[in-house]
Design goal:
The chain has twelve helices and 13 strands. The protein is an alpha+beta fold and about 450 residues long. The two termini are about 45 Å apart.
Length: about 450
């Protein structure tokens, strides 16, 4: 008896996904305990096959049958080049996101004041109010536009408020007029600070008051002021620590101050000796020695006089423009490109469709080859197919025998076969008779 198999499910074909065949033993070879263990044990889950670039390629034999498939292969080669370019650019963007990228913008600061006149009580229960003045410190970005969202459907980032650009604000009034307890107004940033668009101070009085406004910028990363002597050598007055070390290294390389024998030694020239106080130092000593020459940057200072406005003028204001550093908005788009899962999911879905279509094409080609060979050489094809199926059946049942002889029915009607069957049945009958006599306790004479 031969097993039947539909076209496209043959165990042997030139390409495509071959059918996996698992060998089994004859019944009765397992013990009851082993059979119970195999029955309880859940079937192992096959690990998903990892897709490769070759799985999207069309087989050369299929390309010979259909010339238009060359266009697909050309598109596949272009896709591979684009994927490599995108992967390289993605790495460049990741490196760029690690480095601080700042852009300078113009911040306009408004310092204004208004006077509130003295008011006499109009009724008996009302209190009189003294003349007062109100000082305001406000600001806004000149080129501040409504930021657009990097991804459609998301809300744009809120605008930065005035206080977010500073670490602290100090307003110093005339000490003689307001005493040691009322002449200073201070604001310092804390982790719980709520950002605001401006600051205001109210005090009683109608005389002119000189005040000084001190604003300390909040730089990220922090900037430091160099010692005047070192600033003159390097040509920079204030900058971040990495930039200062980079400028110092450029000065050392330009003037050849690195020791030729011991490369980790710096031979200080006259100017560096005056700055660091040593003639020779190691590179690892530079951060500690440089720390002694760095100071906190000076705050921005604005002088303002609070006095009564002229007739017809309600408010006196003065504006100042300063440069502030902000995060480059391009980094937002770069981060969205790197971390956007929608693009990755779309590409994976399209790749999966390509894999499925190529697998269907290979299966259809296998079926075509089956029918094409059967059409050209039906007799030889059926003979080879039966031989292949018979060989597979022998492997499955773990049997040995003459495959060629068992293909014919004459082998089963010979006298030797009939005698063998009778001997087998006689042996089985005697075995059953002995088992029955033993169970009944009957002795055979």
């Amino acid at each position: 008896m031969h097993s039947q198999q539909r076209p496209g499910q043959m165990g042997r074909h030139p390409y495509g996904t071959p059918s996996n065949v698992q060998q089994t033993r004859r019944p009765g070879t397992f013990s009851a305990q082993q059979q119970q263990m195999h029955a309880v044990r859940p079937p192992p889950t096959a690990a998903p096959k990892k897709k490769r670039y070759a799985d999207k390629c069309i087989h050369p034999k299929i390309r010979e049958l259909e010339p238009d498939t060359e266009n697909y292969m050309a598109l596949l080669a272009s896709e591979q080049r684009i994927d490599s370019t995108i992967a390289r650019k993605r790495l460049d963007i990741q490196e760029a996101l690690k480095r601080p990228s700042k852009v300078k913008k113009r911040l306009r600061i408004y310092i204004s004041h208004t006077f509130i006149e003295e008011r006499q009580p109009e009724r008996e229960n009302e209190d009189a109010s003294l003349p007062m003045w109100e000082l305001r410190v406000e600001g806004r970005l000149l080129d501040d536009q409504s930021p657009q969202s990097a991804v459609s459907g998301q809300r744009p980032n809120p605008k930065k408020k005035f206080s977010s650009f500073f670490k602290s604000l100090v307003i110093e009034l005339d000490k003689e007029m307001y005493g040691p307890d009322q002449h200073l107004v201070e604001w310092h940033r804390t982790p719980q600070t709520n950002e605001t668009d401006g600051f205001q101070v109210k005090r009683a009085g109608d005389r002119p008051v000189k005040c000084r406004v001190l604003l300390l910028l909040d730089n990220h990363p922090s900037k430091f002021k160099l010692h005047p002597r070192l600033a003159k050598v390097l040509g920079i007055a204030a900058d971040t620590r990495p930039k200062i070390i980079e400028a110092l290294w450029q000065y050392i390389k330009t003037h050849g101050l690195q020791d030729p024998q011991e490369r980790d030694i710096i031979n200080c020239d006259t100017f560096l000796t005056q700055c660091f106080g040593v003639a020779r130092m190691r590179f690892m000593e530079v951060p500690n020695k440089l720390h002694q020459l760095l100071q906190q940057i000076d705050p921005l200072e604005f002088n303002h006089v609070i006095q009564r406005p002229k007739e017809g003028q309600e408010q006196v204001s003065t504006c100042y423009d300063i440069d502030v550093e902000m995060e480059d908005p391009v980094k937002q788009y770069m981060a969205q490109f790197i971390h956007n899962p929608i693009l990755v999911n779309d590409i994976q879905n399209l790749d999966q469709k390509c894999y499925d279509i190529i697998e269907q094409i290979n299966e259809l080609k296998t079926r075509r080859d089956f029918y094409a060979r059967f059409y050209t050489e039906p007799t030889e094809f059926i003979r080879d197919w039966l031989m292949s199926q018979n060989s597979d059946l022998k492997h499955l049942n773990d049997m040995n025998g003459d495959v060629e002889a068992e293909r014919y029915s004459a082998a089963y009607v010979k006298s030797e076969t009939e005698e063998g069957v009778q001997r087998y049945m006689y042996q089985k009958v005697n075995q059953k008779r002995l088992e029955l006599e033993q169970s009944l306790g009957v002795r055979s004479n």
